[in-house]
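Hi C.,

You asked whether I'd gotten around to modeling the 123-residue construct. I have! Everything is below, sequence then structure, no commentary in between.
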Amino acid sequence: MPTIGVYQDFKFLSGHDAVIIHRLHIGHTQLTHSYLLSGTDQPECSACHCPLTVKHILIECPALTSSHNEHFTASSMKDLFDNVLAQNIIDLIKECHFLSHYIILLLRYHLHRSQGNHSKAAV
């Protein structure tokens, strides 16, 4: 039977923040996975142009190293979710404005899609 690691009690988190933690834990967020349903290219990190994944955001991105160090130290996703308080992860996400970043990506996606639809109509 698969295991998902140590379970943290999320009673102290808002319902919204608990959903964010669960989505980060499984590695599937709208920001990092919406391209699969939309048929667009995988989004890239605007800082280092790597594929934008939950692991990249929470562990790997060199542009976020100072923010990571302020909120937690983790060498892997397992280490992060086993040993770091959920509130610290939420604080990083809020500090880095990933929710705002998602809105910008969504607007770009819709702009790109509408431009693509217009160019197809002209052909």
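If it helps when you're writing up: Residues 48 and 62 are 8 Å apart (CA to CA).

Thanks,
B.
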